[in-house]
Amino acid sequence: MAKIKKTFADRFIIDPVSDFISNSKMGGIVLFSSAALALIIANSPLGESFHHIWETIFTIGIGDHVIAKSLHHWINDGLMAIFFFVVGLELKREILVGELKNPRLALLPIMAAIGGMIFPALIYFAINANGATEGWGVPMATDIAFALGILYLLGDRIPLSLKVFLTAIAIVDDLGAVLVIAFFYTSEIDFGSLFRGLGFLLILIAANLAGVRNTLFYGVVGIAGVWLAFLLSGVHATIAAVLAAFTIPASTHIDEETFTAKLSILFNRFKSAEPNDNRLVTHEQQEVLSKIQYFSKNAIPPLQRLEHGLHPFVSFVVMPIFALSNAGVVFHGNILDSLFAPVTLGIAFGLLVGKIVGVTFMTWLTIKLRLSSLPTGMSMKQVAMVGILAGVGFTMSLFIAGLAFESEELLSQAKLGVLLASITAGFVGYFTLKRYFSEK
User: Fold this and answer.
1) d(Cα 390, Cα 230) in Å, to the nearest integer?
2) Does residue 366 contact residue 107 with C-beta atoms inside 8 Å?
3) Cβ neighbours for 211, distance < 8 A, ≥ 6 positions apart
4) Which of 37, 144, 332, 378 is the one with CA 20 to 30 A from 51?
5) CB distance 133 to 383 below 8 Å
6) Degrees (nearest 5) of the Cα angle 210, 212, 213?
7) Among residues 3, 258, 264, 293, which one has the least CA distance to residue 272?
8) Residues in contact with 422: Cβ distance below 8 Å, sequence separation at least 6, in sequence order
């Protein structure tokens, strides 16, 4: 078999970078490093300048129609919309063909996720009953990238059933967080803009039903239509990203049998084409390769194509930038005051205690009522360990905290609670699982 010749750039730049990006562990490591860097800079002599960077105003628009927002807002309302778009794609895929397709099998992680959202909110309410109750949504969220990243760090010793269970919980949790943002953390609504956004959404749905598979079309209408209208309506723009994701086609123009037959014909044509004995392909070869590229592209549903294409950008650009702009907690005065503030404690205990209790109790209750059963090979001990990892809130929790608190002091306390709980849950979950499965 002929070997593919690799250049110096392929061997020492392109291949290592590709391996780094495709490694499922690296996204979590980059995200954590970005958060740590933000904390260090925010509490250094560069802290004030670092803070002002995110307050820089950027304006887009034409004539009198302009939108002026700080860089921080553009990141949270714009760049994070890409993150939520990918979340929407994952949700749709799981509902169509994944762990949420079978209602009976899906019920267990759904109930576990609901418990993992309700109990943290209740704990937060109990600690902040006479204070900042608006932060109840912050400890409800699980960071799917971090939680799964920790599981994958443990390698093959973790059974697939446990990874699938945590993935399903985190996806349902993401959906719950999106609904919480939509119904409870949305500002005053401009119904004119909202209805325009819904109109563009109907155009995307109609395009899907009509068989349009061009991702550029969905991108233009989704951004210039749905996202922009929702941004102006007061409903958080990230909701538009999730809704737009649900309109992306999950079917192909070409079925497997047709694709295989076409590719076989084209392969034989390419093989029999007269070579030109130089580096460049002939016109006939180029034509065949173009057709192979066309059929290969159209054999993948737009939903999977977009999800696969956007994942590296979200993991290595969107989320690290979000962490840099949101995780920079500034420790003023006595740190113990912030550490023992009700908001900090409510979020920390909500994530650390509420998630474990909620996930474990609702799983046990669902099994006890015989509504569902544990996946083969899983035990309630393992469910409790999943509950620990579900306490890694980070990205979504920080995002909701930014929506919940207007006071800088309360927001800093909320961020501190999220960071403390997420780091603790991550370390405890990792070492608990490592010890448990090393003894097996």
Assistant:
1) 30
2) yes
3) 253
4) 144
5) no
6) 145
7) 264
8) 143, 146, 351, 391, 392, 393, 394, 397
- Rounded Cα–Cα distance for residues 207 and 63 (Å): 31
Instruction: Give the rounded distance of the alpha carbon of 264 from its chain centre.
Output: 38
3-state secondary structure of 254: coil
Nearest to 144 by CA among 116, 123, 124: 116
Q: What is the CA radius of gyration of the chain?
A: 24
| C-alpha to C-alpha distance for 426 and 281, rounded to whole angstroms | 52
Buried b (16+ CB within 10 A) or exposed e, 126-144: ebbeeebebbbbbbbbbbb
For residue 328, give both structure tokens: 């920079």
**Degrees (nearest 5) of the Cα angle 353, 320, 297?**
110
Q: Where do the domains of the chain lie? A: 29-186+236-252+300-320+330-438, 256-297
- CA–CA separation, 385 vs 426, rounded Å? 11
Cα separation, 371 vs 388, whole angstroms: 24
Q: Which DSSP category does 237 fall into?
A: H
Residue by residue, pLDDT tens for the chain (440 residues) are 445 555 544 444 444 444 434 455 566 678 778 888 888 898 888 888 888 888 888 887 776 677 788 888 888 878 888 888 887 888 788 788 876 677 777 888 889 999 999 999 999 999 998 888 899 999 998 877 677 777 777 767 777 778 778 878 887 887 888 888 888 887 677 888 889 999 999 999 999 999 888 888 998 898 888 888 888 887 777 788 888 998 999 888 787 888 888 888 888 888 887 777 777 778 888 888 888 888 888 888 889 888 888 888 888 888 888 888 887 777 766 677 778 899 999 999 999 999 999 999 999 999 999 888 887 778 899 999 999 999 988 888 888 898 888 888 898 889 899 989 998 998 899 899 888 888 66
Q: Which H, E and C letters describe 245-293, residue by residue?
A: HHCCCCCCCCCHHHHHHHHHHHHHHHHHCCCCCCCCCCHHHHHHHHHHH
Q: Which helix (H) or strand (E) segment is 406 a member of?
A: none
Query: Which CATH number does 29-186+236-252+300-320+330-438 carry?
Result: 1.20.1530.10
Q: What are the distances in angstroms from CA 390 to CA 19, 227, 351, 359?
A: 28, 30, 8, 8
Distance in angstroms (rounded) separating the CA atoms of residues 311 and 87? 10
Angle of the 191-210 helix axis to the 237-246 helix axis, nearest 10:
20
